[in-house]
Design a protein that fits this description.
This protein is an alpha/beta fold. It has 13 helices and twelve strands. The protein folds into two domains: 220 residues, Glutaconate Coenzyme A-transferase, CATH 3.40.1080.10; 37 residues, no CATH class. The radius of gyration is 24 Å and the shape is globular. The protein starts with 12 loop residues before the first helix and ends in an 8-residue tail after the last helix.
């Protein structure tokens, strides 16, 4: 029997961002705090994409970097890391004061619910009613009334708070491994990854390693993004640095501190962006520059030590009910006879 040929969606980050990201679109980070798709984010910045809207559960450095590049003009956000307290004016602070960005403040639960509803094809979904008393509901941002609404519970007659479902134009996502078709596997802290990638119209996926589809099929429980959602697969070792990804590397705290320290003033922030984004062509050059600056030993210190999980047995008889002559081993009839029997019993649904 001929084996089904999976489509090959492999390309570089430059090709993926250039082909699938347009100015003015909305996107969601399908990673939150962990395994951040920073290589893809940096390529988006290099290509000068503009007027984007981002959904983010919890940002560390990626939102500030996009703002420094002038890539965003709208932001739906639950949390963004603010280093240095009142001593440092962050890029997000400056962008708000200079009216370069408008922000819709949500909670982790409500923003995740937006993506969950979008992923399931629902126009809206109920959220915890206690949030009614907070400014998250009372104060409106650029989304206006396209966030929360009240509906009547058909079972109790009570008023229920719901949030609108959203389907961003694309998602950026980084995982441990994927096959060339785009079946992506992630383990560790999931947070928003499942619903964010499924809500997006398409996913640009980077991974530490591209593997054979047989590897993906041997551990199906780890597949978080199916191939049909993915438009591009980018093999990109260290693609989440300086955030961490299990089985590969820990987060690089000193490097993050370097970025946030540089952001104390616009000149320092601009110098950091030049050195680590604009003056390197891709993630390979980024890592080469890191090694030249800090040494191979410094980078190697963040590499993960192996800690294997217990194997899961997915074995079965791997046999079908139909023999080589097309007859069911259990029912003693062929497919035509089986369909006729179902039709006689009224079990088939016929189209008009």
């Amino acid at each position: 029997m001929q084996k089904f040929m999976e489509p090959d969606k492999r390309m570089t980050a430059k090709e993926a961002i250039g082909q699938f990201v347009n100015d003015g679109e909305s996107f969601v980070f399908a990673n939150c705090l962990y395994s951040m798709p920073l290589a893809l984010t940096h390529e988006l910045i290099r290509q000068g994409k503009k007027n984007l809207m981002a959904f983010q559960q919890g940002g560390i450095e990626e939102i500030d970097q996009l703002l420094l590049a002038g890539a965003l003009d709208r932001l739906a956000l639950a949390y963004n890391f603010r280093a240095g307290g009142p001593r440092i004016t962050t890029p997000l602070d400056r962008a708000l004061k200079e009216k370069q960005i408008v922000v819709e403040e949500l909670t982790n639960h409500t923003l995740l619910s937006m993506m969950k509803a979008g992923a399931m094809g629902y126009p809206f979904i109920p959220v915890l009613s206690g949030i009614r008393v907070s400014d998250v509901v009372k104060r409106r941002g650029f989304m206006g009334d396209q966030r929360f609404a009240e509906v009547t519970d058909p079972f109790t007659g009570e008023s229920i708070l719901v949030i609108k479902g959203y389907n961003p134009d694309f998602a950026l996502m980084h995982v441990q491994r994927a096959d060339k078709a785009g079946n992506g596997q992630l383990w560790g802290a999931m947070i928003n990854s499942k619903w964010a990638c499924l809500a997006a119209e398409k996913v640009i996926l980077s991974c530490e390693k591209i593997v054979d589809t047989d590897v993906i099929m041997s551990s199906p429980h780890l597949t978080i993004v199916p191939a049909h959602k993915v438009c591009a697969v980018v093999e990109c070792p260290w693609g989440a640095h300086p955030s961490e990804i299990l089985g590969h590397y820990d987060y690089d705290f000193p490097f993050r501190a370097l970025f946030f320290g540089s952001c104390a003033n616009p000149e320092g922030a601009g110098a950091w962006m030049d050195e680590w984004i604009y003056n390197v062509a891709d993630r390979r050059e980024y890592i080469e520059h890191y090694i030249s600056r800090f040494g191979q030993d410094t980078l190697d210190a963040f590499k993960a030590k192996s800690f294997k999980s217990v194997e899961a047995d997915y074995g079965s008889t791997f046999s079908t009910d139909w023999n080589e002559n097309g007859y069911s081993r259990n029912m003693g009839m062929n497919m035509d006879e089986f369909v006729a029997m179902l039709d006689e019993k009224g079990a088939l649904i016929h189209g008009n």
